[in-house]
Write a structure and sequence with these properties.
By secondary structure, this protein is α+β, with helices and mostly antiparallel strands. It has two domains: 48 residues, Uridine Diphospho-n-acetylenolpyruvylglucosamine Reductase, domain 2; 262 residues, CO dehydrogenase flavoprotein, C-terminal domain (Enolase-like, domain 1, 2-Layer Sandwich). It has 14 helices and twelve strands. Strands 4-5-8-6-7 form a five-stranded antiparallel sheet. It has a four-stranded antiparallel sheet with strand order 9-10-11-12. Strand 6 and strand 7 form a beta hairpin. Helix 12 packs antiparallel against helix 13 and helix 13 packs across helix 14. The protein is globular and about 60 Å long. The two termini are 31 Å apart. The structure holds flavin-adenine dinucleotide and iron/sulfur cluster.
Length: 331
């Protein structure tokens, strides 16, 4: 690990004042410190934002909810408002990583963490994402990689929180010394063909200062399912967030987003179309799950993800339609 300075910021303005070339923001530090140990990130100064007050609150406003970027995954998972109104998000945060990590990790850091591709994480591999010529996953160990949009770089987006937040139409607020901008999370996260070197449009002088989920329509119910390879301490190999706007047993509108499937959280529009206007039962849920995977292009070692996704999508649709609020899969 390279030597670095430590600076505590007590306000967002102090973050701006402390920012220098080569500095990095540290929230929980779970991902950033890993990247430093792996030799992938070499910041000259860490700006600790953990002590900034006001960025660690959840509050309801105008029928929706605002979540500060410093709220931990454990707090999101336990919050009564999130659990009852935004169930899929509570389940996703509650199933990520381990209890110890969820107590350290912030939701902002979760959205901004770097990909888990083992070639990316190994400083000996100078792959395309790091400016090299080759994507080693294409011919190599690609069992955990993308089954959609995997031609250029086959990472899967690592954030569990992003999957339900996108399904719910969340936006984020980014603050810089000159302005604040609001961006739909779905647009903020970008695929490798837009920019190979980064996973989002965060500017070098920007701080993520808020996550907003709009009021969900009446009758909206959500659910999230994660499948890992083992039952604890594991990343998802497949995950899905479903939001259904229900009128009795009929679905007025559906939002289905897959995680661990593509370089960005993957909106399964084909499944959404199948569900719209339908009475939700098992055959309809299965049909939607099959449609969701129609355009998948698995690599040499990850075709197993197709039936896996079909199973968890079917189950998540049925659970959302029935208003189930507990579960969520492996933990
Ligand atoms: C064993 C293990 C299992 C895991 N399993 C899962 C899992 O199943 N699902 C999952 O989603 N994650 C999983 N994780 C990842 C973990 O959830 C993330 O590393 C964590 O959420 C990152 O949050 P943090 O607060 O520690 O971020 P940090 O490490 O502090 O920051 C991450 C990045 O975000 C930037 N950053 C942070 N906050 C801000 C801000 N407000 N504004 C601008 N930039 C900011 C930092 O500069 C850094 O680049 C796992 C991690 C481990 C070690
Ligand atoms: S998937 Fe992306 S990060 Fe992984 S080796 Fe290929 S180019 Fe690098």
């Amino acid at each position: 690990m390279n030597p670095f300075e430590w600076a505590d910021a007590r306000s967002v303005d102090e973050v701006f004042a402390l920012t220098v070339k080569g500095s990095a923001i540290k929230a929980g530090g779970v991902d950033l410190v890993d990247l430093m140990k792996e030799g992938i990130a070499r910041p000259t100064r860490l700006i600790n934002i953990r002590r900034i007050s006001g960025l660690d609150e959840i509050r309801e406003e105008n029928g929706g909810v605002k979540i500060g970027p410093l709220v931990t995954l454990a707090t999101v998972a336990a919050d009564p408002v999130i659990r009852s109104k935004y169930t899929a998000l509570a389940l996703a945060c509650g199933k990520a990583a381990t209890p110890q990590i969820r107590n350290m990790a912030t939701i902002g850091g979760n959205l901004l963490q770097r990909p888990r591709c083992w070639y990316f994480r190994n400083e000996l591999f100078h792959c395309r994402k790091k400016g090299g010529e080759i994507c080693y996953a294409q011919q190599g160990e690609n069992q955990y990689h993308a089954i959609f949009n995997n031609g250029l770089c086959a990472i899967v987006h690592p954030s569990a929180a992003a999957t339900p937040l996108i399904a719910m139409g969340a936006t984020i607020e980014l603050s810089s010394p000159k302005r604040k901008r609001q961006v739909p999370l779905e647009e903020f996260i970008i695929p490798p063909m837009v920019n190979l070197k980064t996973e989002n449009t965060l500017g070098g002088d920007e701080v993520l200062t808020e996550i907003r989920i709009p009021a969900l329509p009446p009758g909206a119910r959500s659910f999230y399912l994660k499948q890992g390879e083992k039952e604890s301490f594991d990343w998802p190999i497949a995950e899905v967030a479903v939001v259904l706007e229900m009128e009795t047993e009929t679905c007025r509108r559906a939002s289905v987003v897959l995680g661990a499937a593509a370089p960005t959280p993957h909106r399964a529009s084909e499944a959404e179309q199948v569900l719209q206007g339908q009475r939700i039962d098992e055959p309809v849920a299965r049909k939607a799950a099959q449609a969701a995977l129609k355009m998948a292009s698995p690599m040499s070692k990850n075709a197993y993800k197709i039936p896996l996704f079909q199973t968890i999508i079917t189950r998540a649709i049925l659970a959302a339609s029935q208003g189930v609020t507990t579960g969520g899969g492996e933990a």
